């Protein structure tokens, strides 16, 4: 049995609508890409551009893994410049693939899935890279990861009800540009700038039940994480309110709509539990931890998209979350009993990484084959486009 349970829903799908309210996108990036797309040969499939965009981010992640992280000294400045350029290239290719699809008449549900699926991988990779760029600690890095992933998932959860992917004034375009800006700052000033404080007089804030907060001693990286979390919270509230209103409008019970968040919430809960009971795991192996979470996140996002496209019901549980649950329980019981781990943490992390990767890889290969077979298209070719469309 494949991943698609309702093939007729796939073949009758008319396509979703993306409403991007970003001023940068609407007045700078989109017009620019409207011109750039004319220089791309018509026989280049949109999904090829999508894959190249993902490759740009993978290369950026490899550079970050090799040169950033626990390095005691500043890495070569060109590393930051290269990472910034690669993320900027991803942003361009992420916008060009859809325009190329409409230009060649090869728009398809598969293209929509690949586009947003690659975006979901970028969210986790970009979040980790941003944390490394500002040399964030464990919980700052986890906060940056949550700031990117939670709004992204809720946006697709909302789209399940509205069939519209609604992006606010601050969205993916701004996030991608922000990574490039952070890299540019590090290129000129190095890591040290993020451990500095604001060079202006600031007051001491006294809040009930909390120790005094001296703003002039807070590092720039902390301000960055705080304001990112604050903006993310606003986006989360907006998406949640909109999704629940639409669910009620189409006669979906409130509890039914909220239950659809169970797989995502479960993965985050057990991920947090694991890091809380074994913080040294992230400190020693940040890339394996984050990519394991990223594989689970991307899988859940893609399943959400497939269910919307094929008019299928949400599932309350996915096998991909099992490795994460097992890993966190292995750590939790050792933490509360002071007993040895059933399986050493490093070995457990390796198994979790391998299992989540295989789950996601199997899904990617299988869903591409299934969609191509049902829709009678080719994933990386424009050969199926109509002659009328090609002649435009």
Relative helix content: 55-70%
How many H/I helical runs? 15
Mean pLDDT: 86
The major sheet is characterized as:
2 strands, parallel
Strand order, largest beta sheet: 1-2
Which terms summarize this structure?
4 strands
Question: Your description of this structure?
Answer:
- The chain is mostly helical and 392 residues long.
- Helix content is 69%, strand content 3%.
- The two termini are 40 Å apart.
- Mean pLDDT is 86; it is low at 386-392.
In short:
The chain has 392 residues and is mainly alpha-helical. It is built from 15 helices and four strands.
Outline the fold blueprint.
Layout: H1 7-11, E1 17-20, H2 23-36, H3 46-67, H4 77-104, H5 109-133, H6 138-162, E2 164-167, H7 172-189, E3 204-205, E4 213-214, H8 220-249, H9 254-259, H10 262-277, H11 279-284, H12 286-309, H13 322-337, H14 345-375, H15 387-390
Helix pairs in contact: 2-4, 3-4, 3-5, 4-5, 4-7, 5-6, 5-7, 5-12, 6-8, 6-12, 10-12, 10-13, 12-14, 13-14
């Amino acid at each position: 049995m494949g991943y698609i349970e309702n093939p007729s829903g796939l073949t009758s799908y008319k396509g979703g609508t993306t409403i991007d309210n970003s001023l940068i996108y609407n007045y700078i990036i989109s017009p620019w890409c409207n011109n750039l797309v004319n220089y791309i040969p018509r026989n280049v499939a949109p999904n090829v551009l999508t894959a190249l965009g993902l490759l740009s981010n993978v290369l950026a992640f490899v550079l970050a893994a090799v040169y950033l992280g626990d390095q005691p000294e500043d890495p070569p400045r060109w590393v930051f410049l290269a990472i910034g350029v690669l993320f900027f290239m991803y942003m361009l290719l992420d916008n060009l693939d859809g325009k190329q699809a409409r230009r060649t008449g090869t728009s398809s549900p598969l293209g929509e899935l690949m586009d947003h699926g690659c975006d979901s991988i970028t969210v986790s990779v970009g979040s980790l890279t941003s944390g490394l760029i500002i040399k964030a600690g464990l919980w700052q890095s986890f906060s940056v990861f949550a700031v990117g992933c939670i709004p992204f998932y809720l946006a697709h959860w909302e789209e399940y009800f509205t069939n519209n992917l609604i992006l606010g004034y601050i969205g993916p375009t701004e996030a991608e540009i922000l990574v490039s800006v952070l890299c540019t700052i590090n290129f000129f000033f190095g890591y040290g700038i993020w451990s500095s404080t604001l060079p202006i007089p600031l007051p001491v804030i006294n809040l009930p039940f909390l120790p005094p907060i001296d703003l002039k001693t807070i590092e720039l990286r902390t301000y960055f994480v705080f304001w990112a979390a604050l903006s993310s919270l606003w986006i989360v509230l907006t998406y949640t309110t909109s999704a629940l209103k639409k669910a009620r409008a189409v006669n979906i019970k409130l509890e039914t709509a909220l239950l659809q968040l169970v797989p995502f919430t479960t993965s985050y809960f057990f991920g947090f539990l694991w890091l809380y009971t074994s913080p040294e795991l992230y400190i020693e192996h940040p890339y394996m931890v984050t990519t394991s979470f990223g594989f689970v996140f991307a899988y859940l996002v893609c399943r959400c998209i497939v269910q919307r496209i094929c008019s299928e019901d949400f599932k309350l549980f996915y096998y991909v979350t099992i490795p994460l649950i097992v890993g966190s329980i292995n750590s939790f019981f050792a933490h509360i009993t002071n007993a040895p781990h059933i399986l050493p943490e490093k070995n457990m992390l390796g198994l979790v990484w391998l299992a989540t990767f295989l789950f996601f890889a199997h899904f990617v290969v299988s869903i591409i084959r299934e969609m191509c077979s049902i829709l009678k298209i080719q994933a990386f070719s424009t050969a199926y486009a109509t002659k009328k469309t090609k002649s435009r």
